[in-house]
Amino acid sequence: MKHNENWRDHRRRPHRRRGDWQPPAHWRKQRGMFFRFLFLFGLMVLLVAGGMTIVALLITRLVEGDAGTAVIVWVSGCGLALALPILAVVLAVRTFRRVANPLAAIMNAADAVAEGDLSVRVPEFSGRNEFTRLAHSFNNMTEELERADQQRRNLTADVAHELRTPLHIIQGNLEGVLDGVYEPTPEHIEATLDETRLLARLVEDLHTLSLADAGQLPLKMEPVNVADLLADVATSFSGQAEAQGVNLEVETAVLPPNTHIRGDAGRLDQVLSNLVVNGLRHTPADGRITLNAKLVNDGVQIQVTDSGEGIPEADLPFVFERFWRGDRARTHSGGAGGGLGLAIVKQIVVAHNGRIAVTSIPHEATTFTLTLPVSTSYGAV
Questions:
Q1: Does domain 222-372 have CATH number 3.40.50.300?
Q2: Per-residue pLDDT tens over the stretch 350-360
Q3: Max CA-CA distance within the chain?
């Protein structure tokens, strides 16, 4: 847990000479609160003393007493009038200590966050009172803000990195043609065009992710036949799989006929296509990629399994992160994507109220498992 000195913004504090020390901000706030409290208490004592003086004189006149009687009445009245307030003051001081310190800490931490310091944390005081819960909530909030800010910085750096390579290639090719270094042959133009397609795909992927993050990804929801969906994806990649010597199979024998899920057929096709492309990228010749589906308790489970190189266990928690480069599936070297394919897959699945997980045995197999809800109007017959 960080101490109070971390809550102040040292960058904005001017240089002071020796002897010019000033108390920390939260001390000054507590001192101000204490003097206001002391002023109110002193005013209350004066009012009680003055009021009891008047009452003592009136009672002495009514009973025809002397000055001693007035003093006794005044002392008794003041003692009685101040006894309960003093008791209240003792309780108030204890409450002040329990309230002012955590409140001042949270106020200073909030000021630090407003100045841009997202690393600030406040002590989570012992006990189960409101301030302990407030401190815990505040720390959770700053942790999430710090994590989101770091992700934003990383995303900016990753986007710049991904754009730099194709832009340099395009620029170099065009400058080479203009300088006469390269001949503008169809092959050379096609290679340059491939880089522009890569840029266009990266921009489109970023646009898709931004819409998904904002909850505005357009989806045309309708009943989608699961068997037909898997068959269409397999047909789309059968030629590429055959050219690579990879056996692409669809297994739906255990799936009841006419099983439907509710979703956007185009987006679901995009999900499965990305997973199949990922599998083809890492499955050697004579390998196999299998698409299968079955009913489970909470929906339809679709699996895409490849017999490729697999993913190390330490890398599995990160495969759906954007631009993650822990394994080669997340880079665009050798014709791969820009590191956004699996991130888009997860966002689309979540937008369909589904789940996705991955398991892998290095050098043996990798399986992506999607669980999607069954359509209420079309189910297993």
A1: no
A2: 999 999 999 99
A3: 125
